[in-house]
Amino acid sequence: MRVEAEKKREVVIRVRDLYKVYRMGDTKVYALNGVDLDIRRGEFCAITGPSGSGKSTLLNMLAGLEHPSKGEIVIAGKHIEKLNEKQLVTFRRERVGFIFQSYNLIATMDAVENVALPLSFRGMGKAKRAKRAKEYLKLVGLERFMTHMPNQMSGGQQQRVGIARALAVDPQIIFADEPTGNLDSKTTMEVLKLMQTIVRERNQTLVMVTHDNNLATYADRIIKIIDGKIVSIEENHKEADLEAAREEGAQKNKDCKEAAREETPQKKMTEEKESGENL
Ligand SMILES: Nc1ncnc2c1ncn2[C@@H]1O[C@H](COP(=O)(O)OP(=O)(O)OP(=O)(O)O)[C@@H](O)[C@H]1O
After folding, report:
1. What is the model's pTM?
2. What distance in Å separates the CA atoms of residue 77 and residue 40, rounded to the nearest whole number?
C-alpha cells in the first residue's frame, strides 16, 4: 500500500554523495560529508541536528543558494550543481519559496505589498498582484491586516505574511530555515500547523530546518544530521493517513488553485526571457 502511494508521488529532490568543505586556514571543515537523500512531492521534511551539524548548509545547497564542493542535487530533473549564478536566480524565482527566521519583510511596505513583491519579479500586473496577495493573506488568516506595516504586526503575524509571500508564487518546493525561531511556543504551534495544512492541501514539498525536536514532529519525515552526515531518517506519520489528508486537502483546494492558475502571467520578465533557460 505504502509502496504504491510512494510510487505515485515522484521524487522532487534527489541528493547524491553531497559534500561541502570549507577551508579555514590550514584546516578543512566538512559541513556536509557525503549526504544521500530523496524527498518526494507533497512531503514535509524536517532537517534536525545539533548546532553546527550542517542543517543550514544542506538547506542552502538544496535551495541553490550555495554551490556544493562535490555531489549531485537534482530538483525536478535538473542538476542544480551544474547551474551558473544567473541560472540559479531563475531556478529560485520559478521553483522555490523561502520562509526565513527573521521574516525578511520590507519595512516600508504593507502586508499586501510585501506578498505582492515576488509576483512583480514574475512580470504580473499590479492589479493582479494585489488581488493574489490579498487571497494569500486571507489564506493565512490576515484579512484584517492587509494594510498593516511590518512594525504594526506581531512576530506571528509577520511570519504569516512571510508564509503568504513564499506561497503566493505557487512554488513547487518551500524551504524554511528555523521559521519559528523568533516566536513564542503558542504562536510557533499555530504557524507550524498552518504550514503543515497548507502544503498538504496543495501537495507541495516543504523542507524545514530546526534544531528543536518537538517542532520536527509536525513533519512527515525527520532527517537527523550530525557532523555533516545523515544519521537517521524517521517516518513520522503513516503513509495511508497522509494520503487521506492530501486527498481531502486537494479537493478543498481545487477551486482555489484553478482560480490562481487563471491568473498565471502570460509574460515573464525580460530578464528571464533573455536568460533562455528552460528549467
Ligand atoms: N562560510 C563558512 N565558512 C567556514 N565554515 C562554515 C561556513 N558556514 C558554515 N561553516 C561550518 O560548517 C558547519 C555546519 O554549519 P551550519 O551552519 O550548516 O550548521 P547548522 O546545523 O545549521 O548550525 P546552527 O543550528 O547552529 O545554525 C559548522 O561547523 C560551521 O562552522
Report:
1. 0.82
2. 12
Q: Which residue has the cell 548548509?
A: 57
pLDDT in tens, 58-69: 999 999 999 999
Question: Is residue 278 predicted with pLDDT exceeding 50?
Answer: no
Taking alpha carbons only, the member of 276, 275, 270 closest to residue 86 is: 275
In tens, the pLDDT along 149-201 reads 999 999 999 999 999 999 999 899 999 999 998 888 888 998 899 889 888 88
| ipTM of the complex in this document | 0.97
Residue nearest to atom 26 of ligand 1 (CA): 51
Cα(19) to centroid of ligand 1, in Å?
A: 13
Within a 13 Å sphere around the CA of 258, how many CA atoms are in the beta-carbon half? 5
227 CA distance to ligand 1 centroid (A)?
10
Nearest CA to ligand 1 atom 28: 52
Please report, as a single letter, which amino acid is at residue 51.
S
Pocket, ligand 1, Cβ cutoff 6 A: 22, 24, 29, 31, 49, 51-57, 211
d(CA 49, CA 216): 10
Distance, CA of 239 to CA of 1 (rounded, Å): 9
